Amino acid sequence: MKTMKYVICVPDGCADEPHPDLGGRTPLEVASMPVLRALAARGTVGRAAVIPEGMPPGSDVGNLSLLGYDPAVHHTGRAPIEAASLGIRIRPDQVAFRCNLSTVAADTDHPEGIMPEGIMPEGIMPEGIMPEGIMKDFAGGHPSTEDAAKVIKALDEQLGSGVGAEVSFHPGVQYRHIMVAPESWAQANCVPPHDLTDSPAVWPTGPAGQKLSELMTASREVLEQFPELAANQIWLWGQGHQPQLPSFEQTYGVHAGMVTAVDLVRGLGVLTGMDVVSVEGATGWYDTNYEGKRDAAISALQSGTDLFVIHVEATDEAGHAGNVAEKIAALENWDARVLAGLIPALDAMGDWRLLMSPDHATPLLLKTHTSTTVPYLLVDSKVDGAGGEYTESGTAESEVVPGYELMSLLLQRT
Ligand SMILES: [Zn+2]
Description:
The chain has 414 residues and is of the alpha/beta class.
């Protein structure tokens, strides 16, 4: 007996706004996507609130929605999700922090440090660790994973478990690493470093702000031992407990797999018990291996997986770069290199349903994520929908569906 197959396509950050270079149209309106247009014409299009009101528009929140979990209930922070993708276990009495290798330059206008108004209550930081410097590069010059691992090892030996400290440092990918600390350290307001680019570096505040700032300051001496790297200190943020996510299979009754190059998304797959597949050449960049991801989906579905998530980061990266041509190219790659081959393969397997939706918008003009609603598409191989256009304008009048309800719509478990 043939069972229903489900595919979720996530072009990260693909939703956008009208752009002057495109004659006031969006990348989704301009890109040549014949396969997607045909799917939309026979499916159902609408608008989804993937980022619940009041929550940060991150890929962690948006993808949690798309996997069918209400972020307002289940989201505990970004770092513990990434820690899960690295196989790091966080005890209930611990929290994980994202530990960026970053470049903070001296602020020649404010050699004494500055106290940004409205953000830092006066007197909260003791002398010597006043907020200082300019966030030159939240990614510390993009060190290689191998070079960064040496730095993280040195940090752990000199400031972490190597000297019996309460914290430990764990290597991740490129500039993105993890620090594990006692749970009381979570009591801090930490600004994401990518929100500080070319601006004064606002150091952690709150009850644990001082400890974190001291550690960030101490890390400068360790980074001095690696003069070949552009990064000169760590930046701690995104802290949280390990979320207790109910298993996807127990929640929705289908066995799921996923492919992604992004550790944050991979971590959600790990935490919900999905089979997270690795694909060679999946880079998280424009040059990613689209066919490899498509084929990973097809072979997983052919060998018993019920539902498969294909996540591609390229659209989001193009949005952050403000690169109109690359954003359009990434959408056209979805059409020609994923959907064109995927649909016939699904047809050959039997009945199927498909959901396409980004996890948030990354408008080219803003170069950052927004909390706006995004277009979604649902297609059923046997039952035609009302049909429509899979674009921002084509779904503007639709009723808004909470992002975490899309899974039930896809599985028709409402
Ligand atoms: Zn992004």
